[in-house]
Amino acid sequence: MRHILCSECTTTNAPYVIQANSLFGCTECPRTIHPRDIDLDGHETWTVSPLGALGYVIDPAHCLTLMAEALDDYMSSSNVYSELTALQDHRDAAMALVTALECGLLLPSQR
Ligand SMILES: [Zn+2]
After folding, report:
1. What distance in angstroms lies between residue 55's CA and the mean position of ligand 1's atoms?
2. What is the pLDDT of residues 60-75, one digit of tens each?
3. Which residue, 12, 14, 84, 97, is most buried by CB atoms nearer than 10 A?
Protein backbone atom coordinates (compact mmCIF):
# COMPACT_ATOMS: atom_id res chain seq x y z
CA MET A 1 0.00 0.00 0.00
CA ARG A 2 1.18 3.46 -0.82
CA HIS A 3 0.23 6.10 1.69
CA ILE A 4 -1.68 9.19 0.63
CA LEU A 5 0.37 12.05 2.04
CA CYS A 6 -0.65 15.53 3.07
CA SER A 7 0.16 18.04 0.35
CA GLU A 8 0.74 20.75 2.96
CA CYS A 9 3.32 18.75 4.93
CA THR A 10 5.64 17.83 2.08
CA THR A 11 8.83 17.94 4.13
CA THR A 12 7.62 15.40 6.69
CA ASN A 13 5.63 13.13 4.32
CA ALA A 14 2.80 13.12 6.83
CA PRO A 15 0.15 10.46 6.19
CA TYR A 16 -3.58 10.80 6.78
CA VAL A 17 -5.15 8.57 9.41
CA ILE A 18 -8.79 7.70 10.03
CA GLN A 19 -10.60 9.78 12.63
CA ALA A 20 -13.73 9.09 14.67
CA ASN A 21 -15.70 11.56 12.47
CA SER A 22 -15.11 9.40 9.34
CA LEU A 23 -12.63 11.89 7.89
CA PHE A 24 -8.94 11.31 7.39
CA GLY A 25 -6.71 13.74 9.26
CA CYS A 26 -3.09 14.68 8.65
CA THR A 27 -0.81 13.55 11.45
CA GLU A 28 1.14 16.83 11.34
CA CYS A 29 -1.40 19.61 10.63
CA PRO A 30 -5.18 20.19 11.02
CA ARG A 31 -5.94 19.37 7.36
CA THR A 32 -8.58 16.70 6.77
CA ILE A 33 -9.84 14.87 3.70
CA HIS A 34 -13.26 13.35 3.06
CA PRO A 35 -13.41 9.94 1.34
CA ARG A 36 -15.43 11.45 -1.57
CA ASP A 37 -12.56 13.85 -2.25
CA ILE A 38 -9.99 11.10 -2.74
CA ASP A 39 -9.03 11.22 -6.41
CA LEU A 40 -7.01 8.27 -7.73
CA ASP A 41 -5.95 7.06 -11.15
CA GLY A 42 -7.70 4.33 -13.13
CA HIS A 43 -7.43 1.01 -11.36
CA GLU A 44 -6.29 2.35 -8.01
CA THR A 45 -8.59 2.23 -5.02
CA TRP A 46 -8.19 3.74 -1.59
CA THR A 47 -7.96 1.69 1.54
CA VAL A 48 -6.97 1.93 5.18
CA SER A 49 -4.07 0.02 6.69
CA PRO A 50 -4.55 -2.01 9.87
CA LEU A 51 -2.97 0.94 11.70
CA GLY A 52 -5.52 3.40 10.26
CA ALA A 53 -3.36 5.09 7.63
CA LEU A 54 -4.99 6.14 4.35
CA GLY A 55 -3.43 4.69 1.25
CA TYR A 56 -4.15 3.21 -2.12
CA VAL A 57 -3.64 -0.07 -3.90
CA ILE A 58 -4.43 -1.54 -7.28
CA ASP A 59 -7.93 -3.02 -7.42
CA PRO A 60 -7.81 -6.83 -7.00
CA ALA A 61 -9.87 -7.34 -10.18
CA HIS A 62 -7.29 -5.43 -12.19
CA CYS A 63 -4.46 -7.39 -10.53
CA LEU A 64 -6.08 -10.62 -11.75
CA THR A 65 -6.35 -9.17 -15.26
CA LEU A 66 -2.68 -8.20 -15.21
CA MET A 67 -1.72 -11.67 -13.99
CA ALA A 68 -3.72 -13.32 -16.80
CA GLU A 69 -2.14 -11.00 -19.38
CA ALA A 70 1.32 -11.83 -18.05
CA LEU A 71 0.60 -15.56 -18.35
CA ASP A 72 -0.59 -15.04 -21.94
CA ASP A 73 2.60 -13.11 -22.66
CA TYR A 74 4.66 -15.91 -21.12
CA MET A 75 2.92 -18.60 -23.15
CA SER A 76 3.45 -16.68 -26.39
CA SER A 77 7.04 -15.73 -25.62
CA SER A 78 9.59 -16.56 -28.24
CA ASN A 79 12.74 -15.94 -26.22
CA VAL A 80 14.08 -16.06 -22.71
CA TYR A 81 14.06 -12.28 -22.31
CA SER A 82 10.33 -11.96 -23.02
CA GLU A 83 9.64 -14.98 -20.78
CA LEU A 84 11.48 -13.32 -17.91
CA THR A 85 9.67 -10.03 -18.51
CA ALA A 86 6.31 -11.82 -18.44
CA LEU A 87 7.24 -13.64 -15.23
CA GLN A 88 8.30 -10.37 -13.61
CA ASP A 89 5.00 -8.75 -14.68
CA HIS A 90 3.12 -11.70 -13.19
CA ARG A 91 5.09 -11.46 -9.93
CA ASP A 92 4.46 -7.69 -9.69
CA ALA A 93 0.73 -8.16 -10.26
CA ALA A 94 0.60 -11.01 -7.72
CA MET A 95 2.40 -8.86 -5.14
CA ALA A 96 -0.07 -6.02 -5.80
CA LEU A 97 -2.92 -8.49 -5.32
CA VAL A 98 -1.50 -9.73 -2.01
CA THR A 99 -1.11 -6.13 -0.83
CA ALA A 100 -4.72 -5.32 -1.74
CA LEU A 101 -6.00 -8.45 0.01
CA GLU A 102 -3.92 -7.66 3.11
CA CYS A 103 -5.65 -4.28 3.19
CA GLY A 104 -9.02 -5.98 3.33
CA LEU A 105 -10.16 -5.62 -0.29
CA LEU A 106 -12.06 -8.54 -1.75
CA LEU A 107 -11.57 -10.64 -4.84
CA PRO A 108 -14.26 -10.10 -7.51
CA SER A 109 -15.73 -13.52 -6.65
CA GLN A 110 -16.15 -12.45 -2.99
CA ARG A 111 -18.02 -9.20 -3.71
ZN1 LIG B 1 -0.50 18.08 6.90
Report:
1. 15
2. 999 999 999 999 999 9
3. 97
Q: pLDDT at position 100, please?
A: 93
Cα 19 to middle of ligand 1, angstroms: 14
- What are the residue boundaries of the structural domains of the chain, listed by start? 2-58, 60-110
Burial 25-48 (b: 16+ CB within 10 A, else e): bbeeeeeebeeeeeeeeeebbbbb
CA distance 69 to 27: 39
Distance 76 CA to ligand 1 centre (A): 48
How far away, in angstroms, is 9 Cα from ligand 1 center?
Answer: 4
pTM of the predicted model, to two decimals? 0.83
